[in-house]
Amino acid sequence: MIAPYLTQKTWLHRVGAGHKLLALAVISLGFTQLYDGRGLLVATLAVLAFYLVTIFGHWSRLRLYAPLVPLLIGIGALQAYASGWELAIASIARLVAMILLADLVTATTPMLKMMDALAPVLRPLRRIGVDENQVSLAVALVIRFMPVLLNEWTKRGEAWRARTGRRPPLRLLAPFVADILRLADHVAEALDSRGFSTKRSKD
Amino acid sequence: MTQPGDRNIVLSGVSLARQDRPLFAGLSLDIAELRVGLIGDNGAGKSSLLRLINGLLLPDAGAIVVHGLETKAQRASLPGKVGFIFQNPEHQIVFPTGAEELAFGLRCTGMNSKQADVAARAFLAAHDCADWADTSVGELSDGQKQHLCILAILVMMPSLVLLDEPFSSLDLPSRMKFMKMIAALPQQVIMASHDLDVFANFDRVIWIDGGKIAADGAPAQVIAAYRQRCVDSIGRAP
Fold this sequence. Notes:
The structure holds two protein chains of two kinds.
Chain A: H1 17-33, H2 37-54, H3 68-83, H4 85-108, H5 111-122, H6 132-164, H7 173-193
Chain B: E1 9-18, E2 21-31, E3 35-39, H1 46-53, E4 61-66, E5 69-70, H2 78-81, E6 82-85, H3 89-92, H4 98-108, H5 113-126, H6 142-154, E7 160-164, H7 172-183, E8 188-192, E9 204-209, E10 212-217, H8 219-236
Parallel strand pairs in B: 3-8, 3-9, 6-7, 7-8
Antiparallel strand pairs in B: 1-2, 1-4, 4-5, 9-10
Helix pairs in contact in B: 4-5, 4-6
C-alpha cells in the first residue's frame, strides 16, 4: 500500500528522523500547554505558514485532509456547546497544528529511517517480551497509512454520492472498517511472505 | 540460486479447509518443471495452492516440501527461497520509496540498514531503475509498481517465484514486457492467471477445479480442455 512521500527534496528531508520526531513531540507537548487563545491562534498560523513554505508547490497534499474538516467542525461544535467558543477555537487550532506538523514528518521521512529512529526508544519493551522491531514497524505503518485511509474514506464517500446524490452517512463506517481489515490482511501477507515475522532485521 | 536437483515441490496428501469449508482433501502433486501455470475458476484453489507452497498457509493434514524445505517445520527459511508476487502491487508495496521497498526484504534476511540500502540501490541501478530509489512509489504507474514488486522479490535471490494473477490490472504492453522478463528468469516459476495465452511457452499447466486437479500436462491440451468445459457450462446454463 502506498502513502504520499514527497519525492522532491526539501530541506526537511535532510534532517534526521530522530530529530524530527523529537521536535514533533516537543512542539506538540508545547501546544497542549498553551492556553491563551490569541497565542494559540498565532502559533497555529505560524505552523501553517511553516508548512506551506516547506511543501511549496505541492498544495494538492492538503486535499488529503479534506475529510477531516467535518470531524474538526464536529469537535469544535461540541466544545463550543460544552465550554464556549474560545475553548472550541483553541482545540481546533491545536489539532490543526499537530496534524500539519505530523504530516511534514511523514512527507519528508523515509519509513525505514522512521523505524530506525523509533527502535531504540522502544527497546525497553523487550523486558516485557515485546519485540521493538515489530512495534516500530507497527507505529511506522500507522503513520504511513493515515493519509491512505483518509483517501479510502473519500473514495467510499464518492461512490455513495454517485449512487444516491446524498452526503455519505455515518453507517458507511461499517464497510469502511471492513475495507481496512482486508487491507491489513493483504499488507500482513506481503510482510509475512518476505519474512518479516520469521526473521528479524538487526542493526 | 537454483540447482537442477533442488527444484522439486512435493505435496503429499495435503488437506486444507478455508472458512470451515474443505478445499483440498488428500491432494498429492509433484512439480519439477521450470515454468508451471495454474488455471481454473475463481475460488478453485489456485491462490490457496500458491499460499501453501510459500508457507502463508499451512496444511491441516499432509506435508509440503519445497526445494528441500518442509513448509511447517522450516517455514522461517521459506521467504529466503520463495518469492511471492501478489495480484495488486498496492498491497505488496509497504514502503514509500523504491530503495526502501527493496531494502526491507534484505533487512529481513539479516543485513544491516546500511548494507541493505547500498545493495538495494545497486540492484535498482543494475535493472535500469536507479531513478526509483528515491521516488515516491505513488508516482509510479501501475506497470512500474508491479515491476518494483518483482525487483523487490528478485533482490532476495529466491530459487522459486510464485505469481498470483500478477497482470490482471496491467495494460497489454506491460503484460508483454513482464512475460518477456519472466521467460528470462533463471528461477523456477509457478504462475496463476486467467489470461491463458501467457502459458503458451510454459512446460506444464495444471487446471484446478474445486480443489482437485482436473487436468495436468502440456499447456495446449490442458487449456483446450478448460476452454471446452467453460463453453459447455455456459451452454448448459439457463
